[in-house]
Write a structure and sequence with these properties.
Keywords: Hydrolase
Pfam families: Abhydrolase_1 (PF00561)
Number of strands: 8
Protein name: Alpha/beta hydrolase
Distance between the termini: 30 Å
Strand order of the largest sheet: 1-2-4-3-5-6-7-8
Number of helices: 10
Shape: globular
Radius of gyration: 18 Å
InterPro entries: AB_hydrolase_1, AB_hydrolase_fold, AB_hydrolase_sf
Order of helices and strands: EEEHEHEHEHHHHEHEHH
Oligomer: single chain
GO molecular function: hydrolase activity
Strand content: 15-25%
C-alpha cells in the first residue's frame, strides 16, 4: 500500500514549537508509551490494542521520528523528559501518568520520574538501556556536529530513500524472535532524510544522555512510585545474554523496583510479547492479570 493512501492516525500537537505526532486511545488512568532509538508510534500497535481497554494510552513520535517534525537542536535527556510533561499538558492531561520507556527511552522515562515526580504514577522500563559508568570521550558539540554532517551526506547521496526501509526491516528481524510483517508506515517514514537525521542524532547523543541520567541519579531522588524493569529473554544461555539479565536485575534493585522477564522475546519486546508489557503496566497499580483479563 502506498503511503499517500494511508490515513494519518492521531493528530499533531505543537510542543516547544515542534509539531509532534501523537495517538491517544482508550480510557482510564494515563499511560505514555515511548519507543527506543529511531522507533515510531506504530511499534506499539499490539501493546496499545491490549492496553486501551484499561488505560488512556498516549504514544508519540519524538522530533524527527515517525511523523513528527524535526527539532532545532539535538536531543538531551532533560529535554526529552520535559517533552513528555509538555506533551501531556498540551493534550490536557494534568494528572500523573505511568511512563513506559523502551531501550533508549528508558532513560527518558526515569528522567521524567526524577524531574517531574508529581506527574509520575509509575515507570516500566522495557529492556531499557543501561550504562553503569558513562564517560563520553568527545565534547557533545563535536560529536553532534559530526553526526549532523553524516546525516547530511547520507541524505545527499539518496541513501535514506534507497535503503532506509530495508535497514529498518533488518534491525527489526535482528531484534525479534518472532516473524512480524512489515508495517504499512515503515516505507513512508524510514525513506526520509528527516527520520535518518533523527536516528543518527539519537545514536550520537546516546552517551551524553546516559551521562546526564547518571548525574541526575546523584542529584534527584527517585520518587516513591512503583517501578518494573522488564527484561527481554530469548531463551539463550550465552554469557552475554545472562550478563544482560543480571544488569537489568541490578537496575531494578537500584531503582527499588520489580524485575520481570519477557520471554521468548528479542529486544523489541512490544512486538514479540506485547502482553508482557501490558501485564507490567497493569500490575504496577495492583490491577493485575486476574482483575483485568486481556481477552
Amino acid at each position: 500500500m502506498s503511503s499517500h493512501r494511508l490515513p494519518t492516525p492521531g493528530r499533531f500537537v505543537r510542543v516547544d514549537g515542534v509539531p509532534l505526532h501523537v495517538v491517544t486511545e482508550g480510557s482510564g488512568p494515563l499511560c505514555v508509551l515511548s519507543g527506543g532509538l529511531g522507533m515510531a508510534w506504530f511499534d506499539w500497535d499490539a501493546v496499545a490494542a491490549l492496553l486501551a481497554p484499561h488505560r488512556t494510552v498516549v504514544r508519540f513520535d519524538r522530533p524527527g521520528l515517525g511523523l513528527s517534525a524535526r527539532a532545532p537542536a539535538p536531543p538531551t535527556l532533560a529535554a526529552e523528559a520535559d517533552r513528555i510533561a509538555r506533551l501531556l499538558d498540551a493534550l490536557g492531561h494534568r494528572g500523573p501518568a505511568t511512563v513506559v520507556g523502551h531501550s533508549l527511552a528508558g532513560f527518558h522515562a526515569e528522567g521524567f520520574a526524577r524531574l517531574h515526580p508529581e506527574r509520575c504514577a509509575g515507570v516500566v522500563l522495557v529492556d531499557g538501556s543501561i550504562e553503569e559508568d558513562p564517560r563520553p570521550l568527545l565534547p557533545r558539540a563535536v560529536r553532534t556536529a559530526w553526526a549532523g554532517g553524516v546525516a547530511g551526506a547520507l541524505s545527499a547521496a539518496g541513501l535514506p530513500r534507497a535503503l532506509g526501509p530495508a535497514a529498518r526491516r533488518l534491525v527489526g528481524r535482528a531484534s525479534t524472535v518472532g516473524s512480524h510483517p512489515p508495517h504499512p508506515w515503515e516505507r513512508a517514514g524510514y525513506r526520509t532524510s528527516r527520520v535518518a537525521r533523527a536516528c543518527v542524532l539519537e545514536n550520537a547523543t546516546y552517551p551524553y544522555q546516559a551521562a546526564e541520567l547518571a548525574a541526575l541519579r546523584r542529584d534527584r531522588p527517585m520518587p516513591p512510585v512503583p517501578v518494573t524493569v522488564l527484561a527481554a529473554y530469548d531463551g539463550s544461555e550465552t554469557a552475554g545474554r545472562l550478563r544482560w539479565l543480571e544488569r537489568q536485575r541490578a537496575l531494578a534493585a537500584e531503582l527499588g523496583g520489580r524485575f520481570a522477564l519477557a520471554a521468548p522475546a528479542g529486544h523489541l519486546v512490544m512486538a514479540d510479547v506485547p502482553e508482557s508489557v501490558v501485564h507490567a503496566v497493569l500490575d504496577l497499580t495492583g490491577t493485575g492479570r486476574d482483575a483485568a483479563p486481556l481477552g
